[in-house]
Structure formats: C-alpha cells, structure tokens
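quick one if you have a minute, typing this from the bus. theres a chain ive been looking at and ive put its sequence and its fold in token form underneath. please have a look and point out which stretches look like helix strand or loop to you. anything you notice is useful, everything is just below.

***
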Amino acid sequence: MKRRRMEIVFLFILIASVYMILFTQVSFDVKLFFIGLYILVMFITLFSLMLENRFAHETLLWMYVLLFFPVFGYVFYLFSGQLYLKGYLFRSKRKKDREEWKSLVTQVSSPDLSFLNDHQRSFAAFAKNASETTISTSSETEVLKNGNETFTEIIKQLKKAEKFIHIEYYIFRSDRLGTEIIDILIEKAKNGVEVLFIFDAAGSLSLSNNEVKRMKNAGIKAYPFSPLKHGFSIKNLISEITVKSSS
C-alpha cells in the first residue's frame, strides 16, 4: 500500500512537471526546477526497473517506453502490473513458508528442560516464542571468533561431506578463498555429493561468471537469489539480447 501511494505521487509529479514545463509561462528557474524533478522521478523509476528480475530485452523495452513516452509511458508501466509482481511473489512465498514451518513445528515434541535453571528455562521459552521453533537438546554449537577460525572450519566440514552440501552466501568473491571453496565443491560434486549453492546477486557481484559456469559444468546447482539481469551493464544487456535472438 505504501508503494502504491508513492507511485501515484510520482505520477502526479510527472504530470505537474510536464504541465509546468510545456503549458505555462512561469520563469526559467521554475521550469528548471520541474525539469530536475521530472529527471529525478525517472531516474528512481529506471533504477528500480534495472534491479527487477526480468529479461534484458524486456528491461530495455520498458526503459524506451518510459524515456520516449513522457507520462503516458509511466501510466502504462504503472498499471501493467509490472511493479507489483515481484513484491506479491515474495509475500506469497513468505506466507506459504511460515504456514509450512508452523505445521512442521507442531509435529515436534518439546524436550525435557528440567535440567536447566529458572533463568535458562525462561530464556529457552523466550527463544521458542521469538523464533517459533522448538528448542533442541540434541545439537552442539561451537563459537568461531574470527574469519580465520570460521573459514578453516568451513573448509574442514566441506571436505568431510559425504551426502550433500547446501551452502548459501550473501557476499562471495572470486578471490583466493572463494576459489578454494569452489574447487572443493566441484571435487565433491564429481564424487557424487549433492551440492546446492545459492548466492546473492547484488552482494556477490564480484563472483566471476566463469566460476559459476565452472560449478554448473561440474553438476553443482549454483544460482543467484533475485538476479539483477545485468541491469548495470548496457554491454551485457546487448550481449544477452544477441544470444537470445540467435537462439
């Protein structure tokens, strides 16, 4: 609802700006102000458009519509459903995930926490209510204090994997450490271990496409979360259009 109001406000700003620029006799400074306002709204809209998960040719098409058809292009874009699809999908997924999670939690019996003192039981009850997750007494936790301890343990556990590796990162780079982890994942995949790798598209911009291709060729299911579809590179956009056209 908040976004809908913002988009309606943007629409009125665009209409007012075009009217003041083309159909009034106000001073040049006033017209310059409305020109700047129009450019600002269009920049925000185009930036949001580039971050959406869509094919490159669709992104370019909407950019042309917004740039070359003032106001009318924005109205068409606004009411075509393009701005709300992604948010709706995320809301639907969160709702579905929460319902499935609650159904799973109700199937798990609460453990006996009588060995805890009063303070610990109170904290356990708070953690259960806050996370909507049953407390487990059959797991162990080790605190890793720094990056050296953390990545040493990650590499150790990856090498020990025998059945599956499910790994997810926000920031993953094609540096020495990243390449070492990728090499381990590839080796495990070739040995029959199921490897699933999810990385954030924005946080892992420095992850090389060649490294992702290398993982996929080895049988690893490696995919970005909410891909940017090359929104920041016109060269990549044109390249993707060429590839899709030739296929």
In short: The chain has three domains: 2-86, 109-139, 142-247. DSSP finds ten helices and three strands in the chain.
